[in-house]
Amino acid sequence: MSTNDRPVAIVAAEAEPKLTTSGYPARFLPRVSGRIKQRLGPLFGLANFGVNRTRLLPGAQSALRHSHTLQDEFVYILEGTAILRTNGGETVLSPGMCAGFAAGSGDAHHLVNRSDADVVYLEVGDRSPGDAVDYPDEDLRAQLTAEGFWRFLHKDGTPY
After folding, report:
1. Those residues with Cβ within 8 angstroms of residue 9's Cβ, 6 or more apart along the chain or in another chain
2. CATH class of 22-153
3. pLDDT digits (tens, 9 = 90+) for 31-80
4. Are 109 and 65 in contact (CB under 8 A)?
C-alpha cells in the first residue's frame, strides 16, 4: 500500500481481522483460538510500534502468560470485563481501565475472558529488535529474528 493509498482515519471495528490466530507452536494454539486481532498500525504505515484491536470470545485468553525483555506493552479495555493475570495475581479490568508492562520487568501477564460476553481491547507494543519472550508457565521461549518473525524454542534452546 503506497502512502497515497493509506486512509487518514478508519472505524477500527471495521478493520479486516488478522487471518492467523498466532505464531505459537501448534500445541499452544487452542488456548488462543478465541482471540481475534485487527491490526491497525499497518493500515497507517506505522513501523515503530504495533496497535491491535483485539476481541476475546468467552473463555479465551490473549496469549500465553509472558514477559518481554525489550518490548513495552500496554492494553486499554474498550468493552467487557477481562481478568489480568500477572506474577502478583489477578486484577479485574473493565471498560476504561488500562495496564502497562515495562520491558525487562519479568512480570509475566495475559488477559483471560471468564465472562459470557466478548472483551474488546486495544493493545500497543513496540517492535524492539532483539526482543525475547519468557513464558514461565510453559516449556517455551521466543526470540524476535532480524527479519521480524518470532522463533519459538523449548527452554533448553531446542526449536519447536
Report:
1. none
2. mainly beta
3. 999 999 999 999 999 989 999 999 999 999 999 999 999 999 999 999 99
4. yes
Give the Cα separation of 8 and 6 in Å (integer). Answer: 7
Phi and psi at 32, nearest 5°, equal -120, 15
- CA distance readout (Å), 2 to 5, 16, 26, 42, 109: 5, 18, 35, 11, 36
Could you say which DSSP state residue 17 is in? P
Q: Rounded to an integer, what distance in angstroms lies between the CA atom of residue 98 and that of residue 8?
A: 26
Task: Enter the C-alpha cell of residue 135.
Answer: 513464558
Domain boundaries, the chain: 22-153
Which residues 6+ apart lie within 8 Å of 11 measured at CB?
none
pLDDT digits (tens, 9 = 90+) for 21-33: 789 999 999 999 9
SS3 assignment, position 22: coil
